[in-house]
Structure formats: C-alpha cells, structure tokens
Amino acid sequence: MTIFSGRFVVPFLATLLLVPPAGAAATARTMPVPISVTEARTALDGLTVGERGTLHGYSHTRFMPEWAPQRGACDTREIVLNRDGQAVRRDASCRVLAGTWYSRYDGKLLTSEANIDVDHLVPLANAWRSGADTWTDAQRHAFANDLIRPELVTVSATANIDKGGSTPITWRPPVIGYWCTYARSWITVKRHYALRITKAEKAALNEMLGTCSP
Fold first, then answer.
1. How many CB atoms are located within 10 Å of the residue 203 CB?
2. What is the pLDDT of residues 160-180, one digit of tens each?
3. 97 vs 4, which has greater pLDDT?
4. Neighbour count for residue 165 (Cβ, 10 Å)
5. Which residues pair with 49 in a beta bridge?
6. DSSP secondary-structure letter at 190?
7. Which of 38, 144, 187, 197 is the most exposed place for a label (fewest CB within 10 A)?
8. What pTM was computed for the model?
9. What CA–CA distance (Å, rounded) separates 5 from 160?
C-alpha cells in the first residue's frame, strides 16, 4: 500500500516507524518542545508570505564559523548529542566517545558518532533566503546555535545529507509520524525569528499539519 501526499509518494511502511525503539523516547522529553498544533496553525497564518530570496552573499561561515562554546568544555553540537542520546560517554574535552541515538527523521537507531549529524531544522541557507541576509553575523551565529527553540536535532548523517537546504516543499522526513512535529518546529522557529515563508512553503506546512492527531 502506498500513500500519495501532494508531490510525495511515501511507502506505507514508514507509518510503522511512529514509535522510537525502547529507550529513545526518553530523550524526546529533553528536547525543546514546539508550539501546539492549534498555535502552529495560527502562527502559520501570521507569518509573512513573500518570494524566496537569493543566496547572494551567503556562506555557511556567516552563520557557523564554529559551534559556539556552551557549558564547560562543551560546544553546541556536543550539548545536542548528549541531550538527544542515551548512555552517552564523553572525554574530559566533552568529545563524544559512545552512545545511542534515535534519528527521528528516518527512524534509524545509531550507535556511532560517525553516522550522526546535528541538523539545523530550518536550514541556514533557507534562513538566509527568508530574511537572515539582513542580520548581523552575530545574530546569525546565535540562530545557528539556538538550544531554546527546536532548531537543532540529532539525525542520521544520510537523512541530513538527503535533506540538505531543502524546505518542506521538496523534502520531508521519511517517517510520516514525525511530520506533525517537524512542521510545528519549523513554524516555531520561523515565527520566533520573523523569517518569511513562500506560498508553496505555507501550503506544504499546512499539509504536514494535516497529519497531526485531532
């Protein structure tokens, strides 16, 4: 059986990945919580709709010359890996040595740091196109290291590479059960930072919100 969703053709098997493996669910409670479905619908209607901006002047280093230092010897990436993982072991420099991570995008259980990435849910390139091109580099660096909003999430490296700088128009998590959270998180971040959306992006987010439980 196959589910048709707009431009997406998604195997029904993906819907079976709604529940993380044992132990992984506990990590979700430590992650920033996106706004509710009702609030997300209202917030989406309140976002500025405009044309997609260009990438003129964009570079990754305008946001990320490096991960920002956080607590002790830990930087943002190390904080997120520890937050999202189970049984995470680190050395004295806070470098991750071992652990287990559940990738919410594609339902994979990962046990090697080499196979995981910390994803910017709203990609840096999209943020630039949506209004961050007018920010200072310091503001962009703060956005890229935001631990308060649901902007940073540990996922499989393959899912992160597959997503790239895409918006929900052209890419959505393979796990359909995560679409509701993903859309709410996207809207939470864009509302907080007053970033624009396009007409097609709004339609895609509305479609994803349609998967939320009543």
1. 14
2. 999 999 999 999 999 999 999
3. 97
4. 17
5. 197
6. H
7. 38
8. 0.86
9. 22
